[in-house]
Amino acid sequence: MISFISSMRTVLARQQSVDTLRKLHTSAISEAARKGTREKARKKKVKVEVKKVGFIPHNQRDKKINLQRENLHFDDSWKQLPQDNVYVLKYYRWPVYTVANAIECHRETHHPSMYNVPNAPLIVDIELDMRAEKKNRFVDNFQRMAMIPHKFEHGEERKILVFTKGNDEISEAREAGATLVGGIELIKDITNGELLLTDYQFVLAHPNILPELVALRGLMKRKFPNPRSETLGTNLAEMIERFSNGISYAATKDEHQQDFGLISTSVGTLDMDTQKLEENLRSLLLDVDLIRPKREGERFIKRVLLKSPPSSERLKIDAYQYVPEFYVKTANKASAKSNEVEEREEESSEKQEAVAAQ
Prior knowledge:
The protein is of the alpha/beta class.
């Protein structure tokens, strides 16, 4: 009997120890740990499907990818100058030609014995620094028409529509070579749909018809005449001459480098006189310099190259003999102040001499 009771006690003691162990291993912390391991095991069993991606154009790719791109602003000032006339160009600075020498070099390559294109166009590439006056700001893309002293066959169709009132202004515009000239009757024809603005590349106007022309602002949009684009003014003959025979050019920023802008346009043909080509180039550079932002001590025109297709040769010229290299804000003010100081000193000296004479 005693042995039976002792055995029962041992059984109960073991049962109690087992219960305590179960309570220890089935707590909330151990359940969370087991749950985490089970989820990890389930994820390992899931098959990862790799999707094949085809070719994606550069303008549709993820913009977050920051690719290391080459700086488009060319600077070879750190390179040494060549000592002779035979050298590897990439190890030395680009040679700087005069405009006359560059034109003559292109004429030699376009000789009948080589390319045989004596009347090829002379194209100028102007590289710009598009940074504005304020930091992290850039000059917007712009399109202008440069007045040149010597016209040439630019190969573009330029139809000019002129709005003005008065017999003198209408006759002046017609003599200057406008395609179509009129007043209120042209405005009515456009509103009725009898005349299409899309048939004309340029629209000019005299200020005397501006109140009536406001009705067409919604139809014209960017073609609406304004003084900033030099399509609104009193001198119709000069405006028509500019837009019919001038140089049309546009400055566009690079897609990936906002501070780099490029202008590529023609200033004439190689069969023109060298002096006429140089004067056209000077007029173009002066017109481009009008858009220069007010950045003191900075270059706006970085580099100017002359080329003539089908030749791929590009010759660098010195543009700063036609336009100022740097913009100086205080130049005019300083000169004015110095003149005032000199005048005051002269007046004071004259007064002192008068007093001494007395």
